[in-house]
Write a structure and sequence with these properties.
Length: about 180
């Protein structure tokens, strides 16, 4: 709930700032909590995991720092280790949004990382995020990616309207 109120306030701020012209962006303040920090997506700059990115539509996303998990025997694809991310989507727009529209690509040390599905551990992928998200509400889901056993540099590229739609935003960090 605190996230929703904070995100709603940020969206209002962005809407008012949007009247000033296309070059306006919210600058993060290092003293703010993760829920209060926001940045406008920028294809050339990566955000750290835990940073909130807000698109001009009012839609925002936070990608948590990954947690390492050993996949079950039934995981697809088979892997020795997986990096699990919690994705929080806040709909600050005026229309309903379907989180399944998100396009998410992952790399581990600049090599494509396959999304891992493991229903035994509740990792059902982006396709399971089918519920429509009304304006002013947020939702969370988990995405997992097969990664090497040793620590890697992960990058997640997210586009809210699918591939080739909207400005992509990049999150990165250690997994």
């Amino acid at each position: 709930m605190k996230f929703a109120k904070t995100a709603a306030g940020l969206c209002l701020l962005l809407a008012v700032a949007g009247c000033a012209g296309p070059g306006v962006a919210v600058t993060p303040d290092e003293n703010l909590t993760v829920e209060q920090r926001a940045e406008t997506p920028n294809a050339s700059a990566a955000a750290a995991f835990g940073t909130q990115r807000v698109w001009t539509s009012g839609l925002s996303v936070v990608v948590s720092a990954p947690r390492s998990l050993s996949p079950s025997e039934t995981a697809i694809p088979p892997a020795k280790r997986t990096a699990v991310f919690t994705i929080t989507v806040y709909n600050g727009s005026k229309t309903p949004y379907r989180p399944s529209q998100l396009a998410v690509k992952a790399t581990a040390d600049d090599q494509q990382a396959a999304e891992l599905l493991d229903s035994v551990q509740g990792l059902n992928g982006l396709a399971s995020a089918i519920a429509e998200l009304p304006p002013g509400r947020d939702t969370q889901f988990q995405l997992a990616f097969a990664v090497p056993e040793t620590p890697v540099r992960m990058k997640l590229t997210i586009q809210p309207g699918g591939h080739d739609q909207n400005t992509p935003t990049l999150f990165e960090g250690q997994a």
